[in-house]
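DATA SHEET
Item: assembly model
Revision: 1
Owner: S.N.
Input lines:
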Amino acid sequence: MNPVAAKIRMGFVGGGEGAFIGQAHRQAAGLDGGFELVCGAFSRDAHNNQQTGAALGLAASRCYSDWQGMLDSEAALPAHLRMELLVIVTPNHLHAPIASQALKAGFHVFSEKPAALNLRELLALKQVLEGSDRLYGLAHTYLGYPMVWQAREMVRSGVIGAVRKVLVEYPQGWLSQDVAGQGNKQAGWRDDPEQSGLGGCIGDIGTHAFSLAEFVADQPIEQICAALGTHIAGRQLDDDAAMLLRMAGGASGVLIASQVCAGEENPLKIRLYGDKGGLEWRQEEPASLIHRSIDQPLQVLRSGVGQPWLCEAARQRMRLPAGHPEGYLEAMANLYGDLARAIRDPAPGPDAPGVPGIETGLRGMAFIEAAIANHRGDAKWTALACTQ
Amino acid sequence: MNPVAAKIRMGFVGGGEGAFIGQAHRQAAGLDGGFELVCGAFSRDAHNNQQTGAALGLAASRCYSDWQGMLDSEAALPAHLRMELLVIVTPNHLHAPIASQALKAGFHVFSEKPAALNLRELLALKQVLEGSDRLYGLAHTYLGYPMVWQAREMVRSGVIGAVRKVLVEYPQGWLSQDVAGQGNKQAGWRDDPEQSGLGGCIGDIGTHAFSLAEFVADQPIEQICAALGTHIAGRQLDDDAAMLLRMAGGASGVLIASQVCAGEENPLKIRLYGDKGGLEWRQEEPASLIHRSIDQPLQVLRSGVGQPWLCEAARQRMRLPAGHPEGYLEAMANLYGDLARAIRDPAPGPDAPGVPGIETGLRGMAFIEAAIANHRGDAKWTALACTQ
Amino acid sequence: MNPVAAKIRMGFVGGGEGAFIGQAHRQAAGLDGGFELVCGAFSRDAHNNQQTGAALGLAASRCYSDWQGMLDSEAALPAHLRMELLVIVTPNHLHAPIASQALKAGFHVFSEKPAALNLRELLALKQVLEGSDRLYGLAHTYLGYPMVWQAREMVRSGVIGAVRKVLVEYPQGWLSQDVAGQGNKQAGWRDDPEQSGLGGCIGDIGTHAFSLAEFVADQPIEQICAALGTHIAGRQLDDDAAMLLRMAGGASGVLIASQVCAGEENPLKIRLYGDKGGLEWRQEEPASLIHRSIDQPLQVLRSGVGQPWLCEAARQRMRLPAGHPEGYLEAMANLYGDLARAIRDPAPGPDAPGVPGIETGLRGMAFIEAAIANHRGDAKWTALACTQ
Amino acid sequence: MNPVAAKIRMGFVGGGEGAFIGQAHRQAAGLDGGFELVCGAFSRDAHNNQQTGAALGLAASRCYSDWQGMLDSEAALPAHLRMELLVIVTPNHLHAPIASQALKAGFHVFSEKPAALNLRELLALKQVLEGSDRLYGLAHTYLGYPMVWQAREMVRSGVIGAVRKVLVEYPQGWLSQDVAGQGNKQAGWRDDPEQSGLGGCIGDIGTHAFSLAEFVADQPIEQICAALGTHIAGRQLDDDAAMLLRMAGGASGVLIASQVCAGEENPLKIRLYGDKGGLEWRQEEPASLIHRSIDQPLQVLRSGVGQPWLCEAARQRMRLPAGHPEGYLEAMANLYGDLARAIRDPAPGPDAPGVPGIETGLRGMAFIEAAIANHRGDAKWTALACTQ
C-alpha cells in the first residue's frame, strides 16, 4: 500500500484581494491538488492582509504582516508544520530580495517573473541559489502549455528541419490609454522603474515572447536590433517594442511585443519555419498546433488525452480528452505539478524539471538589457550578455 | 474582521484511479478553492480504492469500501468533521439510489448526470428531495460556461428578438469504432442498458445539447421528431441521433447528437436566430460568443474580466482577463462555486442558484424517453412528458 | 499549328440591369474566356432591355424585345453568326418553356435552377431534351467548386470509409424581415408560387443543399422527414426548412435550409462522416477542405494549382496558386468551361461532363415535392419520386 | 438611348502558355467585361507565341513575334482597329523599356510590377510618362481588394484614431527548396539580377507588403532598418526579409516578407493600431476586415453588396452579395474596371483613379533600394529616397 500523500505546505508573499496574479497562482495550485496553503503575507495593507487570510481559511497566527516576519516565524515552526514552498507574487523589485532570503531560510521558491530588477541583482540571486539545496522556479506560465512542449519536441526531432525563421509576437492593447493615470494599480507600479525595472512592455511581456522563442526553437537568441516606443504622455517606460533577431543556430527572426495594440487581448503567438516545414501556436487557442509541411497538407495537432501522435512531454501536461478546453490556469498548474514532483523527489537535482528557473530568468534579463541598450545606442546589433 | 472561512467537507462515490470524470471533479473543486476532500468510496476494487485515497491524502479510516458504509460512518461523525457534500461520479444506474440515500442521511449531493436511469426513478428521487432540506446539483458542466450565460441573457433581454430557430449539435467521433469491444471501460458500461439507461448517445451527450438549448433559448422544447441509429455490430444502444424540435415559444429547431462523427472531438455548438439577430457559441472555443445582427456588422463578444458589455451572470463566472483561456474545468468549477455559496448561505433555498438541479434532470429524462418513443413509433411528433 | 479558336456565341434571356444573377453569368463566362455575347432579350422593360444591350456592346439588331422573337430571328441567321448557346436567367416559371423552345430551335441551353416549376413540367422538358442533340446545363454553381469535387473523390475512393452521416446546412438571413414588402424585387417574385413554384426557401436554396449532399456523398437521398416554416405575415411560401434524411447507401443525415437565420450570409456547408473519417467543406471559405480521421491529426486540404495531393477533377477547376482566393464566379466559370468543352467536342455525348443537367434538376424537383408533401401530411417519412 | 459601348482593344507582351500571371490578367479583364484582346507578342518562343494567339482566337496577323514589331504595326493600323492598351507581363527587366516605347507610340500601359529594374530606369520612365497624355497603371493587385479600401477609409476617417503601429507581413513558402534548380521557370528568372533587379523576395513580395502598408495607413514609410537573408546555396538574391519601420505620421511598424516560410501559401496580412482601435485584414480571407476597439466588442466587417456600413470605395469594388466569395481575380478585375473608366473618360487626368501608378512604382523602388542599402551597411536606419 502506498503511503498517504502529504500536500506541500505553501505560503504566499503578495496576492492580497484584488491582485489578479496571486489568485491565479492559488487557483492553479488548487487545480493541481498537491498543495496546501498554510501561511501568507498577502498585502502591506493590514486590513487586506487579514481579510485575504481569513477568506482563504488561514488562522490569524499564520497571516503575517510582513514577509521577513513570515520567514522567521515559519522557520521556527516544527518541520511537519512549517511552510515548504514560498510563492512570490509581489511587484518586481521585491522578487530577488525575498527569494534570496527565503532560499537562505531553507524554503523552496516559486517566483513571479522577472527573477530580479536587473542583471546585477539576478546574478547575486543566482549565487545564493548555487549555495543552496532548495529549488527555485519562475512562473513563465506559457511554458506550461502542452502544445508548446509538443512544438519544441517537433523542432528537436527534426520534423520541420533546420530552423530558419522564428516569428514571435505578443500584441496586447491594455495600455493604449493612460490606464495608470486612471487609477489602474497594476499599470501603476509597472510603469515605475523603481518597482518594475528598466523595461516596461519589454519586461512585462517581451520576456514571455523571448522565452517562448528560445524554448521552442531550442536555440539561444544571440543578437538583437530593437526599436522601443512610449505612447502616452507621462509614461516612463516603454509600452511597445519590435526587434530583429539572430539566433545561435543560424535562424533569424522577429519579435514583436506591444501593449498599445488597441483591442488586442493576449494573443502571444509563435511561428517557426525550417527547411521541411513550419509550426504555429497561439496562446488564445492553445489546444491547436498547426504543422505546415513542404510536401503534405497542413495538419492541426490537437491537445487532448489519448492522441497517440503527441509526444510524452505534451501528454504529461494534459488532463482532459480532446475538445475539452484547458487554458491558462491549467498551464500554470502544470508548473505547480512539476514543482511538486521535484520537491517530493527523494533525490532532487538543483532544478525542478519542466519548471523554468534561474537560467530562464537570466536569459530574460539579458534580453531586456540588450533591448534597451540597442534602442538607445547607434549600433545596429547588440549581443545578449548573461554576465557583467 | 471576517471569520475564518471553513472549506466545505466533500466526499466522493466513484472516481477511482483511471476514471476521468472523478478526477475532473476534484480538479474543478480544487480550482474553486472552497472544498476539502475528507472521504471517499472511490472504487469497488479495494486496491484501487485504497490507492486513490492514499494518493489524495486521505487517512485509511476515511477511505470506505462501499458507499452505504460511508454514508453511515460519516453520519456518525461529529458535525464539524463529517462530510457535508457527496459527489456522485459512478456509472449511471447508481446515481439515483446513492443520491436518495445521501439526502436522507443529511448530505448535500452533487451528482453526475443523468439524475436517474429512467423517469420513474427520477420522480422518486424528486420526492425524496422535496422532503429534504439538503441541496441537490447536477453536473451539467456546459451550463457553467460564462458565455452560455451571456447568450441566455441576450436572448432574455431581446437582443436577437423573438427566437425563431434553435440549432444545436453535438457531434463526437469516439464511438466510430468498436471501442467497447477493444476494452474501453467507459464505452463498455455506457452501452449496457442496465448501467446506462435506455439512451446511449442520446443520454450521454444528447441531453447536454438539449439542456443547453432550453437554457439559452429560455423556453422548453415541447415536441420532437427523431431518428436514432446504431452503427457497430453488437452495440446495444444508440450511437447517433438527429431530431426536429418544436419549442414552447414558437421556435423550431434541430438537435444533432452523434458519437460516430469520426474525427470530431467535442464541438457542442448552439445557434439561435430571432427576428433581430442571431447568436452562436461553440464549446471548443468557449470564450467567443458570435452575435449577428440584421442591421450591423457581426460582433464577437469575448469572455474576460473587465469587459463592461458582458452581463453580471457572465462576469461572475470568469477569473482571468480576456485572452487568458478558461475551459472545461473552469466551467465545472463555476458550478462548484455556486454550490459552495448555496451551502454556506445562511438562508438557503431549495436550489443552489446557478447549479442545474432536479428539474434539469427531469427535462433531460423526458427528452430521452420521448426520443426513443418517437424513434420506435410511427407518429411524426412526440410530446415531452415530465410526469408518468 | 492549331486552328484559331472561335468563341461560343451566347445569348441571354433575362439579366437586365439590376438583376444580380444575369450579371454574374456574364462575368463568369468572361472569366472563362470561351464565350462571346451576341444577342439578348434582357428585360420585358424595353428601356432596360435596350440599355443593357447597349452597355454590353450589342448592336440594336441583336437586342430583342422578347425571347420568342430572339429564338426565331437567331435561328434564321447564317450558322457562323447565330447564337449557339442560350443562357436563361429569368424568374423560375419561364425556365422550362424557354428551354424547351430553345432546344427545339437548335440551341444549347444553360439554365438557372430550377429546371422547371414542377415535376410534370420538368418531365416534359426532359422528353424534349431526349429528342434533341443539343446540350442542357443547369447552373448549380456550388457544384463547380474544386474542393467539392475533391470531397466527392475522397468519398468515392474510400478515404473516409462507408458514409454513415451527412450533415448539410444552408442558413441564410436575408428574408428575416419582410423584404418583399419593402420592395426587394428578388424577394418579391420568389414568394409568388406562380413564378417561383411550390417551394420557397426549400426550392431556392434547399435544392442547393440537397444536390451538394447527393453529389459529394455519391448516393441518392431516398426518404425525408421534414418541417417547413413561414415567419412573416403575408409571406406565401416557406422561408425555412429542416429535415431528416435516409440515403440509399445506408447513411442518415440532416438537411437545414433557412432564410430567416438573421445575420447569416451564405454559409452553405456539408459534413460527411464514414467509419474511417470525415470531411467538411464550407462555401464561404471554399479553398479549404477539412479531413478528419480516426487515426491521424486533422488535415486541411487547400485548393491551389500545384498541390500534388489533389485529385484530377479538382485540379482542373483551379486557376491560381494556393493562397490566391478563388470564389463563386470562378466556380460558375468552371461550369462555363465544361460547357464550352462539351459544345466544341467533335463527338459530344448527351451531357456536358461536369455540368449539372436535367437529372440534377429532376432530383431537386422530387426533393421539393417530397418536402412539401411530408410537411403537410402525417407520415413520418416520404420517399422521393422522380416519376409521376 | 445610350450609345453602344465599345470594348477597349487590348494587346499583351508576355503571357504565353504556361505563364501564370498573363493568364490571370486575361481572366481578370474578361471578368470585368470591358476589354477585347486584339493582339499579342506572347512569347519569344515562336511556337508558344502562335499557339497562345490561336487559342485566344487571334488571327495570325495580330500575333507578333516581338513587341517592337507589335508597337510599330499596331500604331500603323486605323484608329478604330488598333490596340489601345498594352498589358506588360514579361520578366521585370523589360517592364520599363516596353512601357516607355508604348507610351511614346501612343498606347496606354498596364504593367506588371515592378515598374522598372532600378530607380534610375524608373525615373526615366516617369519622365516619358510626364510628356505623354497616355495612362499608366501598375498591377498592384492587392490594392484592388474592396476591404483594403474599407480599411484605408476607416483609417482616414479616424475610426481607429491616430495610427501608432503598422504590422504587415507576407510569408510565403515556395522558395523553401531550390525550385529554380529543379526547373521552376518563374523561380529561375526571379533569381537573376539581370532580369529581376536587385531585390529577390524584397522586390517580388516585399513591395506588395510595403505598398499595402502605405496605402492603408495613408502615410509614407520614411525610414527602415532591415535584415535580409538567402537560404539556398547558389541562390543569388534574397529570399527573406524583415525590417523595422518609421512612418511619416509618427507610427512605427514591422514588415516581414519571406519566401522560405515553408508551407505558407500567400497570407499577406496587415494590422494597424491607433489610439482608439485596430484593423486587421488578411488576403487569404479577403472578405473579412476585423475591427477591434478600445470600448466595444470586436467587429467583423464583411465584403458584400448591400452592407450599408461599408464605404463607397469598397462598395464600388464588389459584385456579389455577402457570403459569395470574391478573390484575387476579382481584385485584379477591379483594377481593370478602373482602368477602363479612365481610358473612356472624356476628360482624363494623368492617372487612372483607383489604379496604382508610377508613384506607387517609385515608392516601391525606393523601398527595395533602401532595404538593400541598409542590410549591407552599418547604419541602423536608412531613409527612403525617391530621387537620385
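QC remark: Chain C has a mean pLDDT of 95.
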